[in-house]
Amino acid sequence: MATLSSVLAIINPLSGTTTAEQKALLRDAFLRKAKALGYAPEVAMTAHAGHATELAADAVLRGFSRVLAIGGDGTINETAQALRRSATALGIVPIGSGNGLARHLGVPLNPMKAVERALHGRPVVIDSAEINEHPFFCTAGLGFEAHVAHAFAQQAVRGLPTYMRTAFRAFWAYKPTRFLLDGQEKELFSLTFANAGQFGNNAWMAPKANIADGRLEQCEIRPFPAQATGILTWRLFNKTIDQSAYWRGRSITKAIVQAEGPLLIHADGEPLTLPDGKAEVRIVPGSLLVLL
Ligand SMILES: Nc1ncnc2c1ncn2[C@@H]1O[C@H](COP(=O)(O)OP(=O)(O)OP(=O)(O)O)[C@@H](O)[C@H]1O
């Protein structure tokens, strides 16, 4: 049985664009700093998709007080899944392409500083959410953003430039999606359920989202003419998308989406396909401790 001062760092060796050497430096710094603070530190590398959830679940069972996720939003999501509704707090060390949750929470984007924050920080309660059985912490959605998440997953190289190129290409091929939202017919460019305010890279779809208010921001972008693309993109990164005539937001606790065929969605950027076209979204208030 671990003591309360046990701390685990989970590292995804494939995350982001940092090299193996940089990750080794990060691992060594974590072990050194944690020991100096009187923790009993352990490190685990993920060996396959879903492994971070298994490792974090084991740390919860063993009574670890802190688990650091060193990776992109996917690794942070997988780690956080196992820490929900537990007394073990999540430390975020962002080394991914978007780092949406880290940016929303003001976690340092410098990984060494983020390790310090995770070791010194205090646990703060935040909400999580679910789309069907898939937990998410930042955003989930459908339409264009899901289309891009699916296309990005096919790319061999990660990172922001690849993401931008993928999004640009996807834009020209994309047709707005039709579905029922809480029984109402919709044809939207995109539909986002935001726990945090941004997708990552400071692309703010829900500028006023509060991650601890027990609510999700449901953000609709209705179809727009090509000439509005520039201003919409500018507003997205300028944190003023909610002032656009094409944006509509509502604060919700649950929603049901029903499409006619299989529905492409994403949860924290991970692409998923719902074969029966039905998505049930709900907030899970106060369900995760994050070290801030
Ligand atoms: N050893 C591994 N082999 C293959 N896949 C892995 C391994 N470890 C983790 N994964 C998977 O890789 C996915 C992507 O990882 P992560 O999000 O950390 O990096 P990223 O994709 O580079 O970052 P971002 O999501 O910010 O672009 C995770 O969701 C996880 O399922």
From TrEMBL:
Pfam families, alphabetized: DAGK_cat, YegS_C
Record-level GO cellular component terms: plasma membrane
MF terms (GO), sorted A to Z: ATP binding; kinase activity
Superkingdom, taxonomy of origin: Bacteria
Sorted UniProt keywords: ATP-binding, Kinase, Nucleotide-binding, Transferase
Transmembrane regions listed in the UniProt entry: none
Signal peptide from the UniProt entry: none
Residue span, DAGKc domain: 2-134
Full protein name: Diacylglycerol kinase
Organism expressing this protein natively: Spirosoma aureum
